[in-house]
Amino acid sequence: MDVLRTKIKDVEQQQLIESTIRNAKRLKNLSDDIIEVTQIEGQTLRLHKERFNIIYVITETLEDLNNQIENKKVRLVHDAKDDIIFIEADKPRITQVLYNLLRNAVKFTEEGTISVNVQKPLQEDLIVSVKDAGTGIDLGIFPRLFEKFASKSFQGLGLGLFISKSIVEAHGGRIWAENNPNAKGATFTLPIAHLDR
Fold it and tell me: Is the pLDDT higher at 19 or at 10?
């Protein structure tokens, strides 16, 4: 009986530790977002460009998020014909954009696949899109989707898309979103400028 009680207590303590870690990560994400917005509004956002493999960044970001997902009915995948595509950009900032888009997709998807698609047109910049199978974008919020505090969720402050748009525009690019034609989920698309050919 004592052994059983000890095991139950160990499980409860482990759950408490995991919950504390999750909450600490959420608080860190919120504070990082607030600092980021301050830099954007103060026009002190600086890019430190370097040459890096965008496919590696996508793979790494997907692995990180897959390890964090509690809902096992959601699957993160990526579709790229190439294993190596070099771009010239601010690596931490581009990683942040991908993370924000994927985190949003996970938040609004109860079941299904979230995919990152990479297209490398001959005459244009590299195009990266994140497609989910979630609830789609509420039509009431669509016009101000990339503004501060635009959110229908009780999680977060609604800053992720505003920050992502600012980072993409600082790179000379743009970002847009649309609900999927099959009425399930949404797709966020961004051409990443400065493709290193």
Answer: 10
Q: Mean pLDDT over residues 95-105, rounded?
A: 91
Q: Report, as an integer, the average pLDDT of 143-158.
A: 70
8 Å CB contact between 140 and 73:
no
pTM: 0.77
User: What's the CATH architecture for 48-192?
Assistant: 2-Layer Sandwich (3.30)
Q: How many CB atoms lie within 10 A of CB 169?
A: 14
Rounded (10°) CA dihedral 26, 30, 31, 36: 140
Q: Is the dihedral of CA 135, 137, 140, 144 positive or negative?
A: positive
Between CA 13 and CA 189 the distance in angstroms is 42
State the burial class of residue 105 (Cβ atoms within 10 Å of its Cβ: 0-12, 13-18, 19+). Answer: buried
Cα(51)–Cα(57) distance, integer angstroms: 12
Cα-based angle 90, 121, 160 (whole degrees, multiple of 5): 40
**Hey, what amino acid is at 82?**
D
Residue 4: phi and psi, rounded to 5, are -65, -45
